[in-house]
C-alpha cells in the first residue's frame, strides 16, 4: 500500500508518525506499506507553534522534528497537480507520485488584506522559519515596526518585534485584542498588560494603505477609525508584519475536483475522507464535519490520528469537531478561554473578577443551577487546568464562583484541586483521556509516575500541556512520587553530588556499593551511569587530579556521545564540531575546516552556536579527523554531552559602531574558562556588546550584556520547546565580579540541580527561586562562596583537551573501529545520497547489508 | 552448520560496554561484556530507527536482568532475550533484537551463528538463554 502525504507541517508530521508506528506493528504477512511525504518547505517539519522562540535565542534545530522511522521525506517538493482517477500526484519539477491513499495536509497560508502597498519591501508575513529570518534581517538597525492583526498570530508577531528591540504597534480592526478568544473587558485587561510591555495598541482601526518612502520601502501606514476621511491618520513605520489571519491552503483540492466548503477548506467526513474515497484532508486545510476549519494544532492532531488509523488500522475514532479552548502565553501574559466563553447559552449567568491595577480579568459562565459552562482568564490562567475539565459537565461547582476567581491571598478564596473534578472530566484533550480512566490506571494498573500514566493511557503525549495535571492527580490519589534517580539509587542527583563531594568517592562501583539501594546491581543502568559519570567529571579536579573521561571505569559510564567524543547522528555516523571560542576564527583555520570536510566527504552546516558542524564521519574516521584538527590548533568542541556548549558573541566595540565593551574577548575568556565543565544538562552562554543584544544573550543559561559601566549578567534563559527569557541577575559588574558571579552560579547549579534539569527549570523549582540563588551567589548567604569558587578553579586547572588525549592514547584509539573483528572494514550500513550538493544519510528500516561476498573473507581473516 | 566466528580477545572488551561484530552473511551483532563479566550477543540493528548502533548503547540492569539501552531513542533491550522492556512509550513487543550464543575459549571470544535459523523476524533464543549466552 502506497501512502502519500502532501504537506509536512505539524499535522502532516503527526500523520506520518502515526502511520509509521502503525506500519511497524503490522504482521509479517500483511501487505507492505510505503509512506512518502512531500514538503513544499525545503526543511524538515518543525514546531510552528513555537516559532516566536526563534527570536529568543532558539535555533531552528531546536524546533525541528525528527523524521519518523521508515518514512521517505521529499523536501522542497510542491505538489502542483492531482489526478484523482489515475491516483497520481505531480510535483513542481515534474516528478510523479502514485498513491493508494493520499493525505492532504497543506495547512494554511497567511491572509494579507489587499490594501495598497501591502507588497512593498519591508512588508512581511509570519508563518515559516524563512519569514522569521527575513524579519530578523530586515529589522536590524530599524526602530519602529507595526503588526496588522491583534489576534493570536498578531500578538505572537508583536512579541517577536519587541524582542528585536523595535517600538511595536499593533493594529486591530475589531474593538479589542484577541476578539475570538476574549470579550471586551478581557481585551482591555490584555491591552493594559501588553501596553506595559511597550506595545502601542490601535484597536477599532483599519489599515488603509502602506506608503513607500524615498527608498521605495514601507515608511508609513495610513490608518482609519471610521469611514470619514477626517478619521484617517498616518503612522510612521519602518516595517510591517501582516498577521491578520490565515486561509486554508486548499488550492490542490480546488483545482483538481475535490469538494470544498463555501468559505474554503477541503470538505471531509468523520474519517477525514474528502469527496474522493482515496483522498483524506487533515489540519488547517480541511473543513471538518461541523463546517469548521480549525486553526489550532490540537484538532489537527486529532484529525491526523483519525485519518492514519482509518488508512492502516481500520479502527479510527471519528472526528466530529473539536473544542476551541485555549490557554496561551503571549508576551508573558496568560490568556485562556474555554467552553461557552461568551455566555451564549440560554439562561447563562456570569461572574466577574477584575483588578485593573494588576491587569487581571477573570470570568466564569455558569447555568442557573450552578454548573460551569465556560470562562475567560486574562493575566492569571492558573485555574484553567481544573476549570476547563469541569465546563460542560453536570457536576455543580464546589463553591460560589466568585470565590474561585479571587486571588489566593484573599481569605475568601477557594482553590480547586484536581480532587474536585468529576471522573468524567477530560484531563488530556489531545487523547481524550478522562480523570476516571487515569485513576483506573493508577488503581488497577499500578501507574505510579507521570511516565507510567503516559505509557498506559497516552495522556500527556500530545501537546504536553496536561502533564502538570497528571502529577497533581497522582498526588491527589495519594501516590507518593519517588524522587529516586533510578532503580539503583534512592537519592536524587543533587544528593548523590553531595555524597561524592563530601565522601570523596571516586568510582561508580564504590558509590553503588556504599550508597545504592540495598542489593543494587553493580551494573547500574543508562540513567544512573551517565549521571554519576557527570558528577565524577565535574568534581574530577577535586577528586584527585585530571582524569580523562574515558579512562578506567569511567569509559563504561559515558553516553555514546561522550564515549566517542562526538555527536551520534541518525544513521550511526557522528558529527564533529571543532571549538571556535566566541565564534572568532582565522581564515587559515576556516580553510582547515573546509579541507577536512572536503577530504573526509563530510556534510557541513553552520550551527546556531557560531560553530561549524561536520556530519557523516564513521567511528574509524574520527581519530584521523581530530588529528588534522588538533594539528591545526583546534580542540574538541563539546557539542555532545551535558556540558558547556558555546559562548556566542556579537562583534562588539572593536568593530561595531554601537558597541560599548569588547564582547568577543569576553566570550572567548568565558568559553575557555568553562569548556569541558560537566553539568546536569547542557549550558549555553552568550555575550552582547551593547543593549541591542545581537548575541541573543537573554535566551541563554548565562547571558552577558555590555553596559557603559561594565556588564549585566542574565541567568536561566532558554530557547527550545519552552522558551524562557533570562532573568537580570546583577548589573554593571566589573570583569572580575562577573567571572566570580558566573563561577559561583554555575557551581551552585551543578551542585543542586536534578538530572536533565536546565537552569531555567532549576531556578523555578529550587526553593526561594531567583532571589535565593542571587543571595547565595552575590551575598554568600550560605557561606558557600569560597568553596564554589575553589571547585571551579579546580575544574579550570585540570581541563585537558579530550580529543588530543584520546588520539595520543593507543588503548583508547583501538576502540575507534566499526567492527572489532574487521578493524579495516567501514560499516557498510552507513550510506549516503546527495542533496543540494552535499551528502545526506540513506536509511531504510530493517535493511540488511547484502554484501555477503565482500565481507566473508574479511571476517574469516579476523 | 553452526559457525563459530571469532570476535576478539577477551581483554579487549571493556566491562559495561559493547563492540560491533561483522558476521559472514553481512549482518551485524553487538557483543557485550557486563560489569559482572558476563558475555552476551544481540543484533546490532536498532529496530526502532534502522541504524546499526546497539553495540554503542549503555548496559545496565532492569529487575536483575542485564540490558542495553539503544543510544538512538533509548529503547531498553534485555540482553538475554532481546525483548524490548522499556522505551519512550514503554515496553514494545514489536521491537525485538535477535540474540546469539557467545562463548569464550581460552582468551578468544566467539559468536555462534547458525545460518539455518532466520534472524530477520522474531528473536532466536536458545532454550536456556542465560546459560548459553553467559560466560559460564
Ligand atoms: C506564530 C504562530 C503561533 C501559533 N501559535 C499557536 C498556538 O499557540 N496554539 C495552536 O494551537 N496553534 C498555534 N498556531 C497555529 C498552528 O501552527 C497551526 O494550527 C498548525 O501548524 C497547523 O498545522 P498544519 O500541518 O495543518 O499546517 P502547516 O503547519 O501550515 O503545514 C502545512 C505545510 O504544507 C506545505 N504545503 C502547502 N501546500 C503544499 C503543496 N502543494 N505541496 C507540498 N507541500 C505543501 C506548507 O508549505 C506547510 O509546510 C500558531 C501559528 C503560528 C504561525
Ligand atoms: S492535552 Fe495535549 S497531551 Fe494532554
Ligand atoms: S555591539 Fe551591540 S549587540 Fe553587539
TrEMBL record, chain A:
Show the catalytic activity. hydrogen sulfide + 6 oxidized [2Fe-2S]-[ferredoxin] + 3 H2O = sulfite + 6 reduced [2Fe-2S]-[ferredoxin] + 7 H(+)
Q: Where is the BFD-like [2Fe-2S]-binding domain?
A: 427-475
A GO MF term: 2 iron, 2 sulfur cluster binding
SUPFAM superfamilies in UniProt: FAD/NAD(P)-binding domain (SSF51905), Nitrite and sulphite reductase 4Fe-4S domain-like (SSF56014), Nitrite/Sulfite reductase N-terminal domain-like (SSF55124)
The catalytic activity of this protein is classed by the Enzyme Commission as: 1.8.7.1
Give the record's keywords alphabetically. Answer: 2Fe-2S, 4Fe-4S, FAD, Flavoprotein, Heme, Iron, Iron-sulfur, Metal-binding, Nitrate assimilation, Oxidoreductase, Thioether bond
Q: Where is the Nitrite/Sulfite reductase ferredoxin-like domain?
A: 569-630
Q: Where does siroheme bind?
A: 694
Q: Which cofactor does it need?
A: FAD; [2Fe-2S] cluster; [4Fe-4S] cluster; siroheme
Q: What class of enzyme is it?
A: oxidoreductase
**Gene Ontology terms: biological process:** energy derivation by oxidation of organic compounds; nitrate assimilation
User: Known Gene3D superfamilies for this protein?
Assistant: 3.30.390.30, BFD-like [2Fe-2S]-binding domain, FAD/NAD(P)-binding domain, Sulfite Reductase Hemoprotein, domain 1, Sulfite Reductase Hemoprotein,Domain 2
The answer to whether UniProt assigns keyword Amino-acid biosynthesis to this entry is: no
Family from the record: Belongs to the nitrite and sulfite reductase 4Fe-4S domain family.
Indicate what this protein is called per its UniProt record: assimilatory sulfite reductase (ferredoxin)
**From which organism does this entry originate?**
Actinospica acidithermotolerans
Automatic annotation (TrEMBL), chain B:
Q: What's an example Gene Ontology biological process for this entry? A: nitrate assimilation
Instruction: Show the PROSITE patterns listed in the entry.
Output: NIRD, RIESKE
* UniProt entry keywords in alphabetical sequence: 2Fe-2S, Iron, Iron-sulfur, Metal-binding, Nitrate assimilation, Oxidoreductase
> What are the GO MF terms of this UniProt record?
2 iron, 2 sulfur cluster binding; metal ion binding; monooxygenase activity; nitrite reductase [NAD(P)H] activity; oxidoreductase activity, acting on paired donors, with incorporation or reduction of molecular oxygen
Q: Where do the Rieske domain residues begin and end?
A: 5-111
A Pfam short name: Rieske_2
Protein name, UniProt field: Nitrite reductase (NAD(P)H) small subunit
Q: Which organism is it from?
A: Actinospica acidithermotolerans
The major lineage groups are: Bacteria, Bacillati, Actinomycetota, Actinomycetes, Catenulisporales
Amino acid at each position: 500500500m502506497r501512502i502519500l502525504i502532501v504537506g509536512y507541517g505539524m499535522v502532516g508530521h503527526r500523520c506520518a508518525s502515526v502511520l509509521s508506528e502503525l506500519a511497524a506493528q503490522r504482521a509479517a504477512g500483511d501487505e507492505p506499506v510505503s509512506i512518502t511525504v512531500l514538503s513544499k518547505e525545503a526543511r524538515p517539519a518543525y514546531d510552528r507553534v513555537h516559532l516566536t522562540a526563534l527570536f529568543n535565542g532558539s535555533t531552528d534545530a531546536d524546533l525541528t522534528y525528527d523524521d519518523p522511522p521508515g518514512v521517505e521525506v521529499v523536501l522542497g517538493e510542491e505538489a502542483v497537480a492531482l489526478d484523482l482517477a489515475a491516483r497520481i500526484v505531480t510535483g513542481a519539477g515534474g516528478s510523479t507520485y502514485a498513491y493508494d491513499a493520499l493525505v492532504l495536509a497543506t495547512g494554511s497560508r497567511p491572509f494579507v488584506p489587499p490594501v495598497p502597498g501591502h507588497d512593498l519591501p519591508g512588508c512581511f508575513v509570519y508563518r515559516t522559519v524563512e519569514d522569521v529570518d527575513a524579519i530578523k534581517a530586515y529589522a536590524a538597525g530599524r526602530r519602529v515596526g507595526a503588526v496588522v492583526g491583534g489576534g493570536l498570530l498578531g500578538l505572537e508577531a508583536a512579541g517577536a518585534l519587541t524582542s528585536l528591540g523595535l517600538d511595536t504597534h499593533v493594529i486591530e480592526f475589531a474593538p479589542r485584542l484577541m476578539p475570538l478568544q476574549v470579550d471586551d473587558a478581557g481585551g482591555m485587561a490584555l491591552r493594559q498588560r501588553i501596553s506595559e510591555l511597550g506595545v502601542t495598541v490601535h484597536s477599532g482601526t483599519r489599515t488603509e494603505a502602506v506608503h513607500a518612502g524615498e527608498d521605495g520601502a514601507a515608511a508609513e501606514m495610513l490608518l482609519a477609525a471610521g469611514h470619514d476621511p477626517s478619521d484617517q491618520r498616518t503612522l510612521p513605520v519602518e516595517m510591517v508584519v501582516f498577521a491578520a489571519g490565515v486561509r486554508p491552503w486548499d488550492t490542490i483540492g480546488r483545482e483538481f475536483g475535490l469538494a470544498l466548503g463555501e468559505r474554503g477548506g477541503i470538505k471531509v467526513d468523520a474519517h477525514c475522507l474528502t469527496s474522493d474515497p482515496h483522498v483524506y484532508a487533515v489540519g488547517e486545510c480541511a473543513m471538518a464535519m461541523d463546517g469548521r476549519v480549525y486553526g489550532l494544532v490540537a484538532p489537527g492532531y486529532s484529525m491526523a490520528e483519525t485519518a492514519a488509523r482509518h488508512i492502516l488500522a481500520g479502527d479510527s475514532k471519528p472526528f466530529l469537531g473539536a473544542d476551541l479552548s485555549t490557554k496561551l502565553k503571549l508576551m508573558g501574559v496568560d490568556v485562556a478561554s474555554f467552553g461557552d466563553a461568551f455566555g451564549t447559552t440560554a439562561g447563562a449567568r456570569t461572574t466577574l473578577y477584575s483588578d485593573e491595577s494588576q491587569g487581571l480579568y477573570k470570568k466564569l459562565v455558569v447555568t442557573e443551577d450552578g454548573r460551569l459552562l465556560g470562562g475567560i482568564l486574562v493575566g492569571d490562567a492558573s485555574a484553567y487546568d481544573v476549570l476547563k475539565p469541569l465546563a460542560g459537565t453536570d457536576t455543580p461547582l464546589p463553591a460560589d464562583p466568585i470565590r474561585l476567581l479571587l486571588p489566593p491571598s484573599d481569605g475568601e478564596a477557594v482553590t480547586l484541586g484536581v480532587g474536585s473534578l468529576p471522573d468524567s472530566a477530560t484531563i488530556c484533550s489531545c487523547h481524550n483521556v478522562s480523570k476516571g480512566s487515569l485513576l483506573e490506571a493508577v488503581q488497577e494498573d499500578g501507574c505510579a509516575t507521570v511516565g507510567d500514566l503516559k505509557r498506559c493511557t497516552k495522556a500527556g503525549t500530545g501537546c504536553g500541556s496536561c502533564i502538570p495535571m497528571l502529577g497533581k492527580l497522582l498526588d491527589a490519589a495519594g501516590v507518593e512520587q519517588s524522587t529516586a534517580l533510578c532503580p539503583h539509587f534512592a537519592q536524587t542527583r543533587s544528593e548523590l553530588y553531595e555524597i561524592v563531594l563530601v565522601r570523596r568517592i571516586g568510582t561508580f562501583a564504590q558509590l553503588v556499593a556504599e550508597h545504592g539501594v540495598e542489593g543494587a546491581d553493580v551494573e547500574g543502568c543508562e540513567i544512573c551511569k551517565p549521571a554519576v559519570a557527570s558528577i565524577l567529571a565535574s568534581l574530577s579536579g577535586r577528586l584527585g587530579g585530571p582524569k580523562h573521561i574515558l579512562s578506567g571505569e569511567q569509559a563504561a559510564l559515558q553516553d555514546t556521545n561522550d564515549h566517542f567524543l562526538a555527536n551520534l547522528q541518525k544513521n550511526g555516523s557522528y558529527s564533529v564540531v571543532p571549538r571556535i571560542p566566541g565564534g572568532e576564527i582565522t581564515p587559515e583555520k576556516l580553510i582547515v575546516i573546509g579541507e577536512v570536510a572536503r577530504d573526509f566527504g563530510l556534510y557541513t552546516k553552520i550551527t546556531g552556536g557560531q560553530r561549524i558542524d561536520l556530519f557523516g564521519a564513521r567511528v574509524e574516521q574520527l581519530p584521523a579527523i581530530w588529528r588534522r584538527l588538533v594539528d591545526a590548533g583546534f580542540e574538541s568542541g563539546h557539542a555532545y554531552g551535558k556540558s558547556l556548549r558555546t559562548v556566542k558573541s556579537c562583534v562588539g566595540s572593536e568593530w561595531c559602531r554601537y558597541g560599548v565593551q569588547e564582547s568577543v574577548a569576553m566570550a572567548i575568556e568565558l568559553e575557555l574558562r568553562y569548556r569541558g565543565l560537566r553539568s546536569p544538562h547542557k549550558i549555553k552562554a552568550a555575550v552582547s556588546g551593547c543593549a541591542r543584544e545581537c548575541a541573543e544573550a537573554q535566551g541563554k543559561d548565562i547571558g552577558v550584556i555590555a553596559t557603559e559601566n561594565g556588564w549585566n549578567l542574565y541567568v536561566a534563559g532558554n530557547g527550545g520547546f519552552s522558551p524562557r527569557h533570562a532573568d537580570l541577575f546583577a548589573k554593571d559588574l566589573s570583569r572580575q565580579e562577573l567571572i566570580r558571579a558566573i563561577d559561583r552560579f554555575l557551581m551552585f547549579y551543578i551542585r543542586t540541580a536534578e538530572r536533565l534539569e536546565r537552569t531555567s527549570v532549576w531556578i523555578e523549582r529550587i526553593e526561594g527561586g531567583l532571589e535565593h540563588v542571587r543571595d547565595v551567589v552575590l551575598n554568600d548567604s550560605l557561606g558557600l562562596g569560597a568553596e564554589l569558587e575553589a571547585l571551579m578553579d579546580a575544574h579550570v586547572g585540570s581541563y585537558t583537551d579530550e580529543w588530543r588525549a584520546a588520539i595520543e592514547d593507543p588503548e583508547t584509539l583501538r576502540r575507534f573501529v566499526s567492527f572489532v573483528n574487521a578493524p579495516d572494514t567501514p560499516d557498510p550500513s552507513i550510506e549516503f545520497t546527495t542533496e543540494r550538493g552535499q551528502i545526506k544519510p540513506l536509511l531504510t528500516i530493517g535493511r540488511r547489508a547484502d554484501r555477503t561476498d565482500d565481507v566473508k573473507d574479511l571476517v574469516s581473516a579476523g | 552448520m553452526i559457525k563459530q566466528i571469532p570476535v576478539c580477545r577477551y581483554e579487549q572488551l571493556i566491562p559495561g560496554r559493547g563492540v560491533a561484530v561483522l558476521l559472514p552473511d553481512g549482518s551485524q551483532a553487538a557483543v557485550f561484556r557486563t560489569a559482572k563479566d558476563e558475555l552476551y550477543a544481540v543484533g546490532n540493528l536498532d529496530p526502532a530507527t534502522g541504524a546499526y548502533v546497539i553495540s554503542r548503547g549503555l548496559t545496565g540492569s532492569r529487575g536483575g536482568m542485564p540490558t542495553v539501552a539503544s543510544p538512538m531513542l533509548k529503547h531498553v533491550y534485555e540482553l538475554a532475550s532481546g525483548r524490548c522492556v522499556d522505551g519512550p512509550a514503554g515496553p514494545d513487543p514489536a521491537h525485538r533484537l535477535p540474540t546469539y550464543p557467545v562463548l569464550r575459549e581460552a582468551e578468544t571470544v566467539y559468536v555462534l551463528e547458525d545460518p539455518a535459523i532466520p534472524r530477520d523476524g522474531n528473536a532466536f533464543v536458545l532454550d536456556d538463554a542465560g546459560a548459553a549466552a553467559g560466560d559460564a
